[in-house]
C-alpha cells in the first residue's frame, strides 16, 4: 500500500510541476510566434498523444521530466514559410525569455502555493519546554531554577525567537539552527517567554558546535537539550481500538485514566510516557467512570519506533481545545500578510538551498544529502496521505527546487542555455557550435552522475531503514 501511495503521489506531484515548467517555455514561445512542434510530459515512448493544431501533445513512458520542441534549423530542414518562426532565428533576448520562463514559472508557482498555505492556515505545536536535561548545551546557559526565578507559574516556556528571528513552531526552530550552521556560527541567541504570564528572558551564547550538517537524520533539538513539553491534555479516553491491547479490557470512551501501576497520571502525555516505557509488560490501569474508580490489568503491545521497542495500548485521547491552547498555534494571515510570509518563506528556502549546494560543491557537506526520485516518491506518498497542507508544502518546496536547479549555469539545464545567451549578448555573436557541444557533453555527464548518485543514496536510505 505504501508503494501505491508513493507511486500515485509521485505521478501527481511530478505531473503538476513538469507540466507547469514546460508550459512556461511553451506559452512564452507562443507569445513570440515561435512554432512549437511538440509538448511532452515525460521521456521515451508515447503512452498518449494528440495532434492539436501545429503541436503534438504527448505523455511519455518515463515520468522524470519533459520537453518542448521548437522548429529549429539546427535539428533538421525547416519549410520556407516556417523559417521566420524557427527558434534559432529569434533574437537572443526572445530565446533568453523562452528558456527562462520554465524555471521562473516554477518559482512563481512555489510562491503562490506558500501564499495559499498561509491563507488556509497551518496548525502547529508551539516550541514549548518544561524541563532542561542536565549536561546538554542548553543546560550550560540556562536551568530550570533560573526560569522559575523569572516568575514561571507552571513551568512552561516557549521559544519565541532564535537569533532575533521569530519562530512559531519546532520546525522553524530547526530551520534557524540549520541557517546558523550554514553560516558557521558557534552559538545562537534565544528569546523565551513564559506561556501564561508572558514574562520574557534572553538567553545568549547557546553552543551549537555539537551539531553537524552531515548528520541530517540526527534530532538536533535533543542534542542541544530541547525537550518539547507534551500537551497537558486530560487523560480521557476518546476511542478504544478494536484490535489493540486494551480492546477487551472493559475501558470505554469517557473513562479518565488516574494511574498506572500506582503511579499518578495527571495528563495524557504522562500516560503515554509510562506506557511507552513498558513494552510487552502487563500494567494495572486505574480509571474513573461516573466518579467511581476501577482498575484493570492490560498486557501492552510492543512496536519498533526510532530503532527501539516502545509500549502500545491502543487507546485514543479525547481532544481538549482549551487544554491544547498553550501548546498549539495556528499560523494564518490575510492576503497581504500571506503574500509577505510566502515571499519570506521562499527567500529562506532559496538561501538555504544555494548555501547547501555551495557547501556540497566545496566538499563541506556530504553528497549523501542528495535525494533522487525514490525519496521524492516516498515524500509525495506521505504528503498525499497527510492532508492538503502537507501536500501543498511539498509541492511548493519541490517547485522551488526545480526552479532553482534549472537556473544553475550547467549545460543541458536551462541555466546553461541562459549562460550561452548572456555570452552572446556580451560578445554580439552566438557561442560556437563546437563549444556548445562540448558543454552539452560535460553537462550531460555531470547530470547523469548526480542522478545516479541520488538514486544510490535513495536505495541506501531504504536499505538502512
Order of helices and strands: HEEHEEHHEEHEEHEEEHEEEEEHEHHHHH
Q: What is the alpha-carbon Rg in Å?
A: 28 Å
The overall average pLDDT, rounded, is: 86
Number of helices: 13
Largest sheet: 5 strands, antiparallel
- Which stretches are low in confidence, meaning pLDDT under 50 for 5 or more residues running? none
User: Fraction of residues in helices?
Assistant: 40-55%
Overall morphology? elongated
> Would you tell me the structural class of the helices and strands?
alpha+beta
How much of the sequence lies in strands comes to 15-25%
Quickly count the domains.
Answer: 3
- The tally of strands reads 17
Distance between the termini: 17 Å
Can you give a write-up of this model?
With 465 residues, the chain is α+β, with helices and mostly antiparallel strands. It has 3 domains: 2-32 and 90-118 and 374-463, no CATH class; 124-229, PDZ domain (Pdz3 Domain, Roll); 237-319, Roll (Pdz3 Domain). Helix content is 44%, strand content 23%. It contains 13 helices and 17 strands. It has helices at 2-31, 92-120, 137-141, 144-149, 170-182, 220-224, 268-276, 321-324, 335-361, 373-386, 388-406, 414-427, 433-463, and strands at residues 36-52, 55-70, 122-125, 128-129, 157-162, 165-166, 187-194, 200-207, 237-240, 256-260, 263-264, 282-289, 292-299, 301-305, 308-312, 315-317, 328-331. The strands form 6 sheets. Strands 4, 5, 6, 7 and 8 form a 5-stranded antiparallel beta sheet that branches. Strands 11-10-12-13 form a 4-stranded antiparallel beta sheet, covered by helices on one side. Strands 1-2 form a two-stranded antiparallel sheet. A hairpin with a 2-residue loop joins β12 (282-289) and β13. α1 (2-31) crosses α10 (373-386). The protein is elongated. The mean pLDDT is 86.
Amino acid at each position: 500500500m505504501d508503494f501505491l501511495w508513493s507511486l500515485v503521489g509521485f505521478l501527481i506531484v511530478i505531473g503538476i510541476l513538469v507540466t507547469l515548467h514546460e508550459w512556461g517555455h511553451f506559452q512564452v514561445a507562443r507569445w513570440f510566434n515561435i512554432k512549437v512542434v511538440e509538448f511532452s510530459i515525460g521521456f521515451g515512448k508515447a503512452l498518449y498523444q494528440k495532434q492539436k493544431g501545429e503541436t503534438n501533445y504527448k505523455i511519455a513512458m518515463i515520468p522524470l521530466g519533459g520537453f518542448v520542441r521548437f522548429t529549429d534549423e539546427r535539428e533538421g530542414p525547416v519549410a520556407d514559410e516556417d523559417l521566420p518562426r524557427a527558434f534559432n532565428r529569434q533574437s537572443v533576448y526572445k530565446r533568453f525569455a523562452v528558456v527562462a520562463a520554465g524555471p521562473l514559472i516554477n518559482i512563481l508557482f512555489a510562491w503562490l502555493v506558500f501564499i495559499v498555505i498561509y491563507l488556509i492556515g497551518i496548525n502547529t505545536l508551539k516550541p514549548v519546554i518544561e524541563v532542561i536535561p542536565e549536561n546538554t548545551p542548553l543546560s550550560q546557559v540556562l536551568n530550570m531554577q533560573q526560569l522559575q526565578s523569572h516568575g514561571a507559574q507552571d513551568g512552561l516556556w516557549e521559544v519565541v525567537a532564535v537569533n532575533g528571528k521569530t519562530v512559531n513552531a519546532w520546525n522553524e526552530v530547526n530551520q534557524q539552527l540549520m541557517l546558523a550552521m550554514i553560516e558557521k556560527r558557534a552559538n545562537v541567541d534565544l528569546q523565551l517567554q513564559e506561556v501564561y504570564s508572558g514574562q520574557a528572558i534572553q538567553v545568549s551564547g547557546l553552543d551549537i558546535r555539537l551539531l553537524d550538517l552531515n548528520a541530517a537524520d540526527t534530532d538536533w533539538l535533543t542534542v542541544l537539550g530541547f525537550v518539547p513539553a507534551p500537551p497537558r491534555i486530560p487523560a480521557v479516553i476518546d476511542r478504544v481500538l478494536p484490535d489493540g491491547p486494551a480492546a477487551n479490557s472493559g475501558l470505554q470512551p469517557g473513562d479518565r485514566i488516574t494511574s498506572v501501576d500506582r503511579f499518578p497520571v495527571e495528563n495524557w502525555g504522562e500516560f503515554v510516557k509510562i506506557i511507552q516505557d513498558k513494552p510487552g509488560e502487563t500494567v494495572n490501569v486505574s480509571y474513573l467512570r461516573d466518579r467511581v474508580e476501577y482498575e484493570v490489568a492490560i498486557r501492552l503491545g510492543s512496536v519498533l519506533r526510532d530503532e527501539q521497542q516502545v509500549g502500545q495500548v491502543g487507546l485514543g485521547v479525547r481532544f481538549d481545545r482549551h487544554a491544547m491552547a498553550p501548546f498549539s498555534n495556528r499560523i494564518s494571515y490575510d492576503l497581504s500578510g500571506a503574500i509577505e510570509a510566502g515571499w519570506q518563506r521562499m527567500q529562506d528556502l532559496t538561501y538555504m538551498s544555494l548555501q547547501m549546494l555551495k557547501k556540497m560543491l566545496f566538499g563541506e557537506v556530504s553528497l549523501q544529502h542528495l535525494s533522487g526520485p525514490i525519496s521524492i516518491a516516498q515524500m509525495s506518498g506521505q504528503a498525499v496521505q497527510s492532508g492538503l497542507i502537507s501536500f501543498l508544502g511539498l509541492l511548493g518546496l519541490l517547485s522551488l527546487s526545480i526552479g532553482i536547479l534549472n537556473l544553475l549555469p550547467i549545460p543541458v539545464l536551462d541555466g546553461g542555455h541562459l549562460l550561452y545567451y548572456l555570452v552572446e549578448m556580451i560578445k554580439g555573436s552566438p557561442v560556437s557550435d563546437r563549444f556548445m557541444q562540448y558543454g552539452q557533453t560535460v553537462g550531460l555527464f555531470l547530470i547523469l552522475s548526480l542522478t545516479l548518485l541520488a538514486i544510490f543514496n535513495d536505495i541506501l536510505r531504504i536499505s538502512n531503514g
